[in-house]
Amino acid sequence: MTVSPSKAVMSSIPEPVWLPPQPPSTIPINIYRAHINRKFGVHLRNSHELHQWSVTQPHDFWIDLWSYVGLIPDLPSGISQAYDPEIPITEVPRFFKNAKINYAENVLTQPHVDPRSTALIGLREGGDLDGEKWSWIDLRENVRKLRSSLLRSRFKEGDRVAALISTSLWSVAVFLAVASIGAIFTSIAPDLGEEGCISRLKQVTPLILFVDSHVTYKGRQSSNHAKILKIVDKLEVKPQVIIIPTAQVEHDDFLTLSGFLSRSLTCDKLEFARVSFSAPLYILYSSGTSGPPKCLVHQHGAIIQHKKIAKLHNSLKPGEVVFQYSSTSWVLWNIMIGHLSAGTTLVLYGGSPTWPSPQAMLKIVEHHRVCYWGASPKYLQELESTRCTPKEQYDLSSLRMVQSGGSHLAAEQYDWFYRVFPTHIHLTSVTGGTDLVTSWIATDPAGPSYAGEIQLMALGHDMDVVHPVTGESIKDSGASGELICRKPFPSMPIFMWGDEGNGKYKAAYFDRFNFPCWTQHDWASFNPLTCGATIHGRSDGVLNPQGIRFGSAEIYSITEAPPFLDTISATLCIGRKRAKKDMDESVFLFVVMRPGYSLTNDLLDQLKKAIRIGLSARHVPRYIFQVDEIPMTLNGKKVETLVKQVICTGELPKQMSSTVVNPKCLDQYVKFYFIESRTSKL
Where is the chain membrane-spanning (predicted)? Predict the structure, then answer.
């Protein structure tokens, strides 16, 4: 087996696409590095050396970080270790065992922020661009009322509260109220299907379920009433349903939010239950492609990660406006609330990011003077297809960072971005996951950015790239391999709900190698010249023709970039190796065309030539076919593993995750199990 080196290793260091425009001494991560140098007598020269110190001295790092980012309350005196170093990462050691904390308290306590200033701006698709604004006073009061109503409903620490609601003002308030009590919150985007909702809620048995009365997406508004009746009917433990009116409510089956809030008492002050650092905070769900979703239980202590990312990696300051497009089912929603802990103003948008056009998001950025904008690579690709030039059409002078996550941001997208956006903006890519509710590899606001690379390993995360068979570290060679983490970190899930003995947890992250490490199942490489990282795709979807391993993201960087954007809507690249039929793996590229276009022989030749020149002859797929659809999750991610399963077996999956929004499209892939000819067009 050959593990392919990254192209960057085989050439000289490239020109950066962005450099910090501000004086180095004013950048928060540099200020923090200077603090570490003074306090610990070291001489760290840049963010990469700071990261190396943070993983070689993890106890000094995490203990110091607590006070540096201003966590409440102070750490108990005498703590010299963040966790027990004798307990390996595979046993999920608890951090700060004697410390008490509350996530909501650390978000809502903002001594350096004017309480009359805006905390939240709520926008809905098709609504007024000004939206609804809550000051910090409003936010705290609404959280207080919700908290009081929960307590008067006999809610207590450890109880579960679920929310089937869109990204909105009340989504944030409900979460913070639940967290303030020490109860456990879980959220689901309202566009998830009935079975998807049921498969999640029946596992975690919430006692209360907050629900939006209506959902609006791509110009269509629909009532959730019938859906809620069916969901509740299928749950053994019947939750009390609280309806949040988002349009005219025509049924009185359930209590409305105003009725629920009428239970609150003015004598109930906004207080916070300080619980153990590892106490359950919320439950997130794996977006697996088969079987019921895994329920990942995260801890109150995740706040230390969120403040670290907000203040150091993203340089967020009080009063800055943050606009992260995300549904409540996506981990970026949780991380976004962590940004609020830096005293920022959040723009909360419920609806489609591309309706009536992708430029609708740019209008929000301009109107609300957004400083930090979170957008996916797919959205940026859709924006590129409009051929707009934002720097000429919008006032983006306030915007200093555009952060992309969820999938690989191709080098070509960086090139496009800096042609049409102001060059002062820091375009940055990150990678993390629902499983750690933060980033593995993040932004360096003090260092150069290179096209197609993620800048900096997140502080405190001891990341490595290892050979998929031997487990040997190959990170410094620049070769691609399995992405792992070697040391514990304080946002590991404390357990999976219902996973007796932690068997599923260990199988998911710790069984891959015969040494202690967390395996993320991403195929990655680090560039020794730039210290940047590239995620090439999921390691379970790595392509391996003739023993040459590479990730699908490498193919997408060609097929979903100019000059193909005008004609191709999306592509999917996977390998097929059929049991008892194939000695080697064949690479398939499936292409969805834009309306009015088809996969012609000329376009086939262009695709093959572009892949051969941009990557190598070995990367050129054996088969290229046009299809009607590619299976996608609710969060807009391609589901490569399902298609791979179908074309390798000739059968449809027996179980299907409810997060797949278009499962019927898999029917069209069964025929590719039988394809033998080299003809590459249907």
Answer: 161-185
